[in-house]
Amino acid sequence: MFKKYLVCLLAVVSVMGCTDHTFEPQLSNTCSVQDPVEDLPWLRQTIEVYRQSPQKNWFIQQGTYKGQTVFAFNICCASCNYVIPVHNCSGERILENIYVQGNADPLVSDLVTIAQAEGFKCTP
């Protein structure tokens, strides 16, 4: 029970501390670019497509999987079950992280939000 509350608290804290796009250069980045959101064409184009969506609960995170930089395309829905597609620096889908009602499979670590919907809203 405590673990469930801790996961929820961490999710709320991470979402509340996010802005539309603030890249933190201290992130480990194996993509050989300064700012993945601006410097990786496939990522920039994907974000533009997401921004045209009426959905306001999407966010994209950068993290680490097996020592490489990856990008997880996520939604905020604590009561949902869904698959989180994870892409490498080239834009190839290399993993599908499972999210089951508030608990993401921890295959990807060091997650930091790098983009989110304008007017981001997290729906429980």
From TrEMBL:
Residues 1-19 form the signal peptide. Keywords: Signal. PROSITE patterns: PROKAR_LIPOPROTEIN (PS51257). It comes from the Bacteria. The keyword Signal applies. This is Uncharacterized protein. It comes from Chryseosolibacter histidini.
